[in-house]
Design a protein that fits this description.
By secondary structure, this protein is mainly beta. It is built from no helices and 15 strands.
């Protein structure tokens, strides 16, 4: 129970503040905690720290997850979303997948149809999205058709994965490398 301190907000059943003597604490249901919550009126609090699952947040938003549930999920209007942005319980980040297999896992589509679904990563030179280079991965179920393509911007602003870029390097699942071609027919094909 609080013994001293001021400006504390504690909400919930059988809930207590992390410190019995501190001020400016926020506790909601023993899951959401805040420290340095000290602004008044409409003033934005610039030093408050919020914790989910931790009573000692160390960042503007600190999430501590001791369960197997995801730590953070952003979905579209479908819930549960099969292609969200997610941080799982082990810290892996998934974009387009609910089960990231690496520290960063980008997925696009379901290739069970063999339709050459692809995932891509873009690197833009300005915040407007112009002058973008891409790494694109294609998978069609066969090693010879699976490939990773490095595409470099050709000087066109607002490029997309299919326009305004030159496919400069291709690596296939069959072990072939193409420079200037996306369909290398041998270990090294230069066009």
């Amino acid at each position: 129970a609080l013994t001293t301190g001021s400006n504390n907000i504690v909400l919930g059943y059988d809930v207590d503040a992390p410190s019995a003597t501190a001020s400016n604490q926020l506790v909601i249901g023993n899951i959401l905690f805040g420290s340095n919550v000290n602004s008044t009126g409409t003033t934005v609090d610039t030093d408050a720290l919020i914790g989910i699952g931790t009573s000692t947040p160390w960042g503007r938003l600190s999430i501590t997850n001791t369960s197997s549930a995801p730590s953070f999920v952003v979905e579209d209007d479908t819930s549960p979303d099969s292609t969200p942005f997610i941080i799982d319980a082990s810290g892996n980040v998934g974009i387009g997948t609910t089960t990231p297999l690496a520290k960063l896992n980008i997925a696009n589509g379901d290739d069970s149809t063999g339709s050459n679904a692809y995932a891509q990563l873009g690197f833009s030179y300005n915040s407007g999205g112009g002058y973008t280079d891409f790494i694109k991965t294609f998978h069609s179920g066969a090693a010879a058709s699976s490939k990773m393509i490095f595409s470099i911007n050709n000087g066109t602003q607002h490029s997309t994965p299919t326009s305004g870029v030159v496919d400069t390097l291709t690596l296939t699942g069959a072990g072939n490398v193409g420079i200037g071609t996306t369909t290398p027919g041998s270990r090294l094909s230069v066009s």
